[in-house]
């Protein structure tokens, strides 16, 4: 379990240009060796699949429905549940085969309405992949367009990019850049827990949304999302 500190930047390009940045902390964990701690936890109910099965089993089952065999190893970058709360705008799973070679990447997107959607990606040698947008995230962007993602596996540095194009124009870009701090220690776990990272991230995202609404940006109606794995 490795801690990363990072800067998350959102840039809105269409209708109304707006940029906002805030700091986040995320943990990189091996799904076969999830930490056992009273301070933080990674629960299946907070991710895809059935809440009564391990995250690893749920991901493996979901990949099987798409013709992908069970990975030999899965690394997950996410925020854990702490003080009874969790909010993960983006969880990334890097899937490797038994020899350690990359198989695929799964980008699990969560919105502020308690819904989620997974994008299965087959990155090229530069860790780039594309996918059609299929999930309502921002109330100011409709469900159309195509994502271009660059999601390299973290090492000493963390550098992820998701860019959305709509009508052949840039619509939205999110970047996450940071550095590896080190393994979980009691001090780092305490610092993460009492800095209220998930609570603060959600508050800042919603404050950003209020600012856009006050500037009279049109709100796109949200249709109920049907979970692709069959369990929400």
Automatic annotation (TrEMBL):
InterPro entries: DUF1365. This is DUF1365 domain-containing protein. The lineage of its organism: Bacteria, Bacillati, Actinomycetota, Actinomycetes, Pseudonocardiales.
């Amino acid at each position: 379990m490795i801690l990363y500190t990072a800067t998350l930047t959102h840039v809105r390009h269409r209708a109304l240009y707006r940029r906002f940045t805030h700091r986040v902390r995320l943990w990189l964990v091996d799904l076969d060796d999830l930490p056992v701690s009273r301070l933080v936890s990674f629960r299946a109910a907070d991710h895809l699949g059935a809440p009564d099965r391990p995250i690893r089993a749920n991901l493996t089952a979901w990949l099987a429905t798409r013709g992908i065999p069970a990975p030999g190893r899965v690394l997950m970058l996410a925020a854990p549940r702490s003080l009874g709360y969790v909010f993960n705008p983006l969880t990334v799973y890097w899937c490797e085969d038994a020899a350690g070679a990359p198989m695929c990447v799964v980008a699990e997107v969560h919105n502020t309405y308690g819904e989620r959607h997974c994008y299965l990606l087959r990155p090229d040698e530069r860790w780039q992949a594309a996918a059609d947008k299929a999930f309502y995230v921002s109330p100011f962007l409709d469900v159309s367009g195509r994502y271009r993602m660059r999601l390299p596996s973290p090492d000493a540095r963390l550098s992820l990019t998701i860019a959305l194009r709509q009508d052949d124009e840039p619509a939205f870009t999110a970047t996450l850049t940071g550095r590896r701090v080190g393994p979980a220690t009691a001090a780092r776990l305490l610092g993460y827990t009492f800095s209220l990272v998930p609570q603060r991230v959600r508050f800042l995202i919603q404050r950003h949304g209020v600012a856009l609404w006050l500037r009279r940006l049109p709100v796109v109606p949200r249709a109920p999302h049907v979970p692709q794995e069959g369990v929400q």
